[in-house]
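Let us work through a complete example step by step.
Step 1: write down the sequence.
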Amino acid sequence: DSDDSEELVVKSADKAVSGDLPKSDAEPASEGCTPGRLKSIHRSSDASPGALDKDKVCGSRGIMTPPREERCAPEGTSSPTPRPQEAPSSKHPHDAGQGQPPPGYLTQAQVDALLKRQEAQFQERLQRVSQSSDQKEKDLHSKMKEEQKELDELKSAVVEVTQSREALLKMLEQYKDMLAAVVKGKSTIDKDQEQKFKEVELQRNQALEDLSNVEAAFSDVHSKYERTKQVVETLRRNEEALRGAVVEYENKIKRQEATLVTFQKHAEDKMQQASDEYENLKRNTDQELTKMCALLKKAEVKIVSLQDQLDSKSRDNQELTLLLDDLISKMGPST
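Step 2: predict the structure and record it as tokens.
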């Protein structure tokens, strides 16, 4: 979703910098935007790509950004859409009507804040994923150590049970030999051997009971070993899944960083193109202004000349009127 929103921003920036905007929107809103100052801004942007000092940008319209409707991020993303700000009013009369920025356009400071905010979000997301992965890996290793320790204990118990079983089997063999000897000498020592036989039988029964208990314990240990083996296998699969998720997040972050670098480079190219177009427009405007000033000066000179002629004619008419009145007054009495 963030990749789609960045593509929308790039396309909108292309439209804003290209010739699709009206002429009044492309002109600067501040009288401080001179060609020399724009060249210094261009040199500073070449010295550190992607970083423009907002103090060097003329007014609040140093860079034109796409309209607010085109910069809306898709649903579910966190890309902010800053509100447009008003540009400072122009001081020149010929800049009247051009001081207000078009609705939906951003300043360079807002674009920088947007980029910094996105980078902070990416860093925060990477840090959360890394911390979660490290914690899960630590828990997994700790649990594996505990399971391995329990497995070692179970193995040692199995060894002890096996040794005890072998000892019991040897003891049973000895008991069998003793029983055979008792049977052979039964005629002479019947009572004593019968008592001993009962004792041996009791011991045999006890040994068989112990053997049964040992076999049950061995079966229990074996079942625990199988369950532990399954748990270890499950933990191993979980570890592999977590490692795959970490690699996927790292690749996604790298792609987003590459997209951000491409967008910055594209924006710098468009700013250079806009600066060149502004230079041409400024040069043409200066020529037209010089021409209009010359015509105005010529008209003022002509007006002054006509005013002098009018004053001269008025004085001549006044003098002629006085002469005529004088002649009429002199000729009046004689008639």
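Step 3: interpret the result. Residues 326 and 332 are 10 Å apart (CA to CA).
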